[in-house]
């Protein structure tokens, strides 16, 4: 069984996407044997009111009985937008969403902003995970209208060191660290923080070139299948698990990476 912990529907203003609706994504999932997917609405990154995007997603999922069985909706929340607390509570308690995605880069606040800390604590208290992306797209291929996070600028793309401060601030929350694409060098203390936190890293990021080494460093319970679809492809994240040699991962461990760790995080 495969559970994708990192997928989206919706539109990206600077790139044409395919398979970016529940219907077309479901067809793509069936092609690659993916059983379920954690999904958020890309439109929420760009709408001033992210709740409109959350409602769009739920309405789309409710439009077909197949979708509710296959998609696990996460709300996009902007904690510096008025009414965000009500939005989060409504999303989780009323709309039945199973987690939260925060996008500090796009919504223009720091990862240790008091609003971000408060949002993570609220998600913790609601019992749901919080997802942070290293990046949404490769900043080397950017529109002049996109955010300025090119490497070498005052706001470069994130690496793990940039995300860990919020983990240190709220160590008892649940985290999904997604699309790991840049420098992964950490101190022993930072590695230990990851090990003792309820945290999952998905397999979509281009820096996961040797899955076995990362499992050895962080532990097998810290990884789960993810695609970053439809921006990235399905096969890469899958191959990082399936290409593990027998001496690196037995079938039981592979099944944890495919779906077991995700089930534990999501409570399914």
TrEMBL record:
The record's section on InterPro entries has:
Amidohydro-rel, Metal_Hydrolase
Q: Which Gene3D superfamilies match?
A: Metal-dependent hydrolases (3.20.20.140)
TM stretches of this protein:
none
- Boundaries of every Amidohydrolase-related domain copy: 47-268
Matching entries from Pfam families are given as: Amidohydro_2
| Name of the molecule in the record | Amidohydrolase family protein
Source organism of this protein record: Mucilaginibacter boryungensis
């Amino acid at each position: 069984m495969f559970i994708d912990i990192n997928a989206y529907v919706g539109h990206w203003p600077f790139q044409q996407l395919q398979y970016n609706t529940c219907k077309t994504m479901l067809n793509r999932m069936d092609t690659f044997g993916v059983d379920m997917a954690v999904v958020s609405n890309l439109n929420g990154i760009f709408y001033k009111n992210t709740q409109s995007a959350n409602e769009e997603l739920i309405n789309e999922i409710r439009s077909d009985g197949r979708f509710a069985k296959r998609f696990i909706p996460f709300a996009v929340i902007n904690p510096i937008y008025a009414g965000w607390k009500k939005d989060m509570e409504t999303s989780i308690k009323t709309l039945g969403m199973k987690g939260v995605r925060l996008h500090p880069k796009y919504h223009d606040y720091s990862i240790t902003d008091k609003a971000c800390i408060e949002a993570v604590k609220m998600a913790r208290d609601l019992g749901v995970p919080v997802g942070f992306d290293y990046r949404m797209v490769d900043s080397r291929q950017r529109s002049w209208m996109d955010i300025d996070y090119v490497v070498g600028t005052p706001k470069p793309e994130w690496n793990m060191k940039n995300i860990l401060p919020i983990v240190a601030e709220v160590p008892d929350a649940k985290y999904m660290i997604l699309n790991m694409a840049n420098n992964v060098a950490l101190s022993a203390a930072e590695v230990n923080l990851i090990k003792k936190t309820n945290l999952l890293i998905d397999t979509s990021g281009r820096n996961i070139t040797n899955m076995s080494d990362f499992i050895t460093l962080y532990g097998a319970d810290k990884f789960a299948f993810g695609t970053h679809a439809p921006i990235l492809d399905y096969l890469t994240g899958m191959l990082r698990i399936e290409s593990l040699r027998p001496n690196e991962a037995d079938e039981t461990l592979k099944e944890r990476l495919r779906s077991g760790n995700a089930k534990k995080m999501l409570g399914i």
